[in-house]
Amino acid sequence: MDKFETLTGIAAPMPLVNIDTDMIIPKQFLKTIKRSGLGANLFDEMRFDRSGNEIPDFVLNQDAYRSAEILVAGDNFGCGSSREHAPWAIKDFGIRCVISTSFADIFYNNCFKNGILPIALPADAVEVLMKDAEKGANARMTVDLENQTVTTSDGESFSFEVDAFKKHCLMEGLDDIGLTMEKVSSIDTYEAQAAQARPWV
Amino acid sequence: MSPKTLYDKIWDAHVAHEADDGTCLLYIDRHLVHEVTSPQAFEGLRMANRPVRAPDKTIAVPDHNVPTTLDRANAATMTEDSRVQVEALDKNAKDFGIHYYPVSDVRQGIVHIVGPEQGWTLPGMTVVCGDSHTATHGAFGALAHGIGTSEVEHVLATQTLIQKKSKNMKVEITGKLRPGVTAKDITLSVIGETGTAGGTGYVIEYCGEAIRDLSMEGRMTVCNMAIEGGARAGLIAPDEKTFEYVKGRPHAPKGAQFEAALAWWKTLYSDDDAQWDKVITIKGEDIAPVVTWGTSPEDVLPITATVPSADDFEGGKVGAAQRSLDYMGLTPGTPLSEIEIDTVFIGSCTNGRIEDLRAAAEILKGKKVAVKRAMVVPGSGLVRAQAEEEGLADIFKEAGFEWRLAGCSMCLAMNPDQLSEGERCASTSNRNFEGRQGYKGRTHLVSPGMAAAAAITGKLTDVRDLM
């Protein structure tokens, strides 16, 4: 997995609340058996019309935001399905960090498995960051995972919380399965005990 | 011993390893797999040369992509990419030696209907699946939730998940439900109350007289939509109804093992003085038959209400409500019962079980549909067979419904069952998101009885008027 340490880049504003996984990646693109290539269809039905032409109003179709690496979004981002195609599409587009007041649980977890940092901040902080993002391509935000800060183009800084273990894995680009395999003796022991206690399972 | 919630008890029984910071390896008793969220996970195993750790606890069934038309045995009914996914699951199930119900098997169906039906889902278990509606299995007092594909691979490889414990929320529905009010109305009303993020960070336990009174089917409907309220999982403590439902199912324990299991299952309830991080209480008699008007499952109103205006909301919801009204093509102030419907869909892991079909058939008996199209997609081949045996299929067909084969179908429209642009649907499914049932399709979530009522009148209708 790609490491995430610091990121300075363009932030795209998407103030809409409850952006769901069907918006992030509509189901017709879930029929792939690969993880790559979904960026072309990120936010597909908001981004393109039925003939495949760009909808000019959509933020990622505006020249200032075409190479956005950060998304600042409304409340409850990523609600809905468990499809990991959502973070795959976000990552494939080039976005490495999503900032909102809150995230749906499964989406939030899925981000960390894919080198994406989701940052939850209080509403007033998100409002400041949203305004900064609205300034366009010249306003670059900086996300520093080590120090757990987001800094606006004006130098205003906000601290965020992140689980220490998730942070460690993201900063080191660690593979969860490899880490768990190191504890395989605990799993063996548990499995043997559980088979005694609840043999019907 | 300190008092525990049901969630605490199941959690504690499944911790295989706990790190100093509270990060746990939670052992998984049942892993359900379908064709859409698993191919990349199996590919990952192959690349790392890893086996499935517990193939006997892993159950796969294709459901999301499969056509539901009667000619689906003909491969040409599937698009190339859908066929590739289903074939990948066929191959992965065979190569890795996991339990499998192929499309041709009468037991095939929606994974969350097949699991309980076959007795894979039992009280006190941990159950995961690469699908958010895994919450359904919580109806048995199993800790069940959706996971992403990376986690699917993690469970396949290690039979564990890396987890931190969620908080405990109690949702109590007191008293009795009024006639015409169902489990679907309960679960939608709870989301209407809490919002789609109200459950974020929590595991919900549903309790109270109205929940106890529900059948297992109804309880599955309630837990199914816990995820729409943002919760990691929904739970209902097992009781005699649960044990009765489980007993005798193909993969449920038998004989002395059943008795041993039963003794443990009977300890699975929240202690009286357990601590809750959040409590919500709703009076059963205050719940009405409801519909959704917008594009979020929290956009819930009683059928007797009118379409709201964006001004009725606050903050970010003002813009979202306006966007929903535009998308849904609705004018504020219009009575919900005057909204004309093009299509009715009865099915899904929310409402595709036998009791749901009975409830819809009860309303439809001897009537004809007044909508452009109406379809019933039973949740599994066995539900379909039972409905045929009970004569429900004939009622649907005589009313003008299409009687389909099992699958997820128009709930998420990954197969050919889709709404066209602007088509308005009364649907027993779980999500009314933009584009969910088809590009620019418009979804109103309702109970099976309400869906049947809408089919007869051609409008969103108060089912109580037809009872």
How would you describe the overall organization of this protein?
- The complex is a heterodimer of chains A (201) and B (467).
- Chain A contains 8 helices and 7 strands, in the order βααβαβαβαβββααα.
- With 201 residues, chain A is of the alpha/beta class.
- The longest helix of chain A is centred in the C-terminal third of the chain and has 14 residues, at 184-197.
- A 7-stranded mixed sheet of chain A has the order 4-3-2-1-5-6-7.
- Chain A is 32% helix and 16% strand.
- By secondary structure, chain B is α/β, with parallel strands linked by helices.
- Chain B is 32% helix and 17% strand.
- Chain B has 16 helices and 19 strands.
- Chain B has helices spanning 6-12, 39-48, 80-96, 111-117, 149-158, 183-194, 209-212, 216-224, 240-246, 255-265, 316-328, 348-351, 354-364, 381-389, 392-399, 448-457; strands at residues 15-18, 24-27, 30-33, 58-60, 99-100, 126-129, 143-146, 160-163, 167-174, 202-207, 233-235, 278-283, 290-292, 300-302, 343-347, 373-377, 402-403, 424-427, 442-445.
- In chain B, the strands form 5 sheets. Chain B has a 5-stranded parallel sheet with strand order 5-4-3-6-7, with helices on both faces. A 5-stranded parallel sheet of chain B has the order 17-16-15-18-19. In chain B, strands 11-10-9-12 form a 4-stranded parallel sheet.
- In chain B, helix 2 packs across helix 5 (149-158) and helix 13 packs parallel to helix 16 (448-457).
- The model of chain B has no long low-confidence stretch (mean pLDDT 97).
- The chains are: A alpha/beta (201), B alpha/beta (467).
- The interface between A and B is large, with 57 and 83 residues.
